[in-house]
Amino acid sequence: MAAVIEVKDLHFQYEDGTKALDGINFTLHAGETVAVLGPNGSGKTTFVLHLNGILQGKGTVVICGMPVAKETLPAIRSKVGLVFQDADEQLFMPTVLDDAAFGPLNQGLTRQEAICKATDSLELVGIAQLAGKAPYHLSAGEKRRAALAGVLAMEPEILVLDEPTTFLDPVAQRNLLRLLRELPQAKLIVTHDVNFASALADRAIFFERGLLVADGPINEVVAKFDWGYPPPADALRYSAQRRF
Questions:
Q1: CA angle, 180 as apex, 175 and 184 as ends, to 5°?
Q2: Which of 116, 140, 228, 241 sits CB 3.0–4.6 Å from 167 for a disulfide?
Q3: Of all helices (H) and strands (E), which one includes residue 211?
Q4: Model confidence over 171-201: pLDDT tens digits?
Q5: pLDDT tens-digit readout, 119-154
Q6: pTM to 2 decimals?
Q7: Which of helix, strand or coil describes residue 67?
């Protein structure tokens, strides 16, 4: 199976001297879903922001065969669809349809082509009926789907979701889980929600103080660490039942 992300010896330090990543090595294959786990401040978000060039540290990041560099950023940002933790950071156009069409327009498509792709993506995530609404009128779950639709309209090969269950009630979480299972893209799910991660991913990586300290089957990674939030036993039971 082809690798869609290859990261080798990645280091990153913020201007205040904080060492956020300290020699990260990671590979993601086509169609694979991996949970990105670890405490706050461990380097998870810093890591994923390197995957589309928002941050650029020392080391090698290769996306779908292209090294992340200034000249490759437009192509790479079409390959990696990043859904932020707060959907309001991504929804800024007058209507949901305009928001979903924004990415395709910036890829060089005509207005008509962009609207077609946006309409298809809104149908895919189940909110086609909201196309004419203003994003600020949506519920938290609808905003999450609208943000995801905008990313899917660009036809990425990789989806990166940062804390996708934030602000979602249990019904919205189940609906999002069902949708993500159906999408064919490779996925990285950055989350503190171990139950959600275990229901979606077979593999997990764990960050701690800028180091990638574990990479393996999610049930083994979850059981290895003292979480302080949903106990491993709950996550493991949920994982065992997830396909039923």
A1: 150
A2: 140
A3: strand 211-217
A4: 888 888 998 999 999 999 999 999 999 999 9
A5: 999 998 989 999 999 999 999 889 988 999 999 999
A6: 0.86
A7: strand
Q: What tens digit of pLDDT does each residue of 212-231 get?
A: 999 999 999 988 875 544 44
In angstroms, the CA 62 to CA 89 distance is 26
- Taking the C-alpha atoms of residue 195 and residue 219, their distance in angstroms, rounded to an integer, is 11
The answer to whether the CB of 186 falls within 8 A of the CB of 158 is: yes
**Rounded to whole angstroms, how far apart are CA atoms 105 and 5?**
26
**Cross-strand partners of 37:** 206
Helix (H, G, I), strand (E, B) or coil at 152: helix
Please, which residues bridge with residue 26 across strands?
7
Which tokens is 203 given? 């593999």
Cα 114 from Cα 181, distance rounded (Å): 25
pLDDT at position 226, please? Answer: 55
Give residue for tokens 């082809």.
2
Contact call for residues 159 and 201 (beta carbons, < 8 A):
no
